[in-house]
Write a structure and sequence with these properties.
Length: 251
């Protein structure tokens, strides 16, 4: 009885192993087919104009920054005309803000500044972003594909500098949030060079969805019911916007 049961178990295990092996073989064919027909990727660099936009009256946008970045891109084609696009993007963003009220504490790696009304801080922030787009494109027209895309980009801050005084270039990671999310809308062309090789040219607008800073720059004139001034809170929101020109090569 024992040997009979053992034999049955052995046969079941062998059958499952065969099914598993068949599954992996079929999966290999499927992924190979996807790699050949449903995926394309490439690399690009992107000159960028960026600025910071506050939502309160006591902080003003002061100046834009011109930066450069680069990235890797991959299109997973859902149909002939629609694709899910993702990748990895290394961006330099930032801008200047003018603080109209006293800023009692701006922390850097080496100092804590107390800034007078009218102080201007230039932010220089570097992010690693993971674009998540839906992309729609035309069929080839005279050797060119035209496309539009939209989606969100969660970005992780890995460096933040600030010119608190002239060219101070302070480490300001304590004043910038580690995670930042934006909504992006873009469009452009893919010019066919031959085979699957194409030149990419696109313009992308990035609009911040979440607060980019942690600076306590809220309204200082807040009082409790007894007339005592309350501690300053984070009542403002500063978003990071940008306009990117992506130029690259796709395969």
């Amino acid at each position: 009885m024992f040997f009979f049961t053992f034999a049955k178990i052995k046969i079941k295990v062998q059958n499952r192993m065969k099914k598993l092996a068949l599954f992996f073989v079929l999966s290999s064919f499927v992924f190979c087919g996807m790699a050949q027909n449903k995926f394309s990727g490439g690399i690009y660099f992107n000159p960028t104009i960026s600025w910071m936009k506050p939502d309160v009256k006591h902080i003003e946008k002061d100046a834009i920054r011109v930066n450069f970045g680069f990235g890797l891109v991959g299109d997973f084609n859902l149909t002939d005309n629609f694709a899910f696009q993702t990748g990895l993007r290394f961006n330099n963003m930032g801008g200047s803000l003018k603080y109209l009220d006293t800023l009692p504490s701006f922390k850097t790696a080496d100092s804590t500044y107390k800034l007078l009304p009218g102080s201007i801080i230039e932010y220089k922030t570097q992010y690693v972003g993971i674009p998540l787009y839906i992309k729609g494109k035309t069929n080839e027209i005279g050797g060119i594909f035209y496309f539009l895309k939209a989606g969100v980009v969660p970005s992780f801050r890995y460096s933040a500098k600030a010119n608190v005084t002239v060219n101070s270039n302070d480490d300001a990671r304590d004043e910038m949030r580690g995670l930042y999310t934006s909504f992006e809308l873009g469009g452009g062309i893919e010019y066919v060079l031959g085979g699957n090789t194409r030149v990419l040219a696109e313009l992308v607008f990035s609009n911040g969805l979440t607060d980019a800073t942690k600076t306590l720059a809220g309204d200082p004139k807040r009082y409790d019911q007894y007339g005592k001034m309350l501690p300053r809170e984070k009542t403002d929101k500063v978003i990071q916007n940008g306009l990117m020109l992506n130029i690259g090569i796709l395969f």
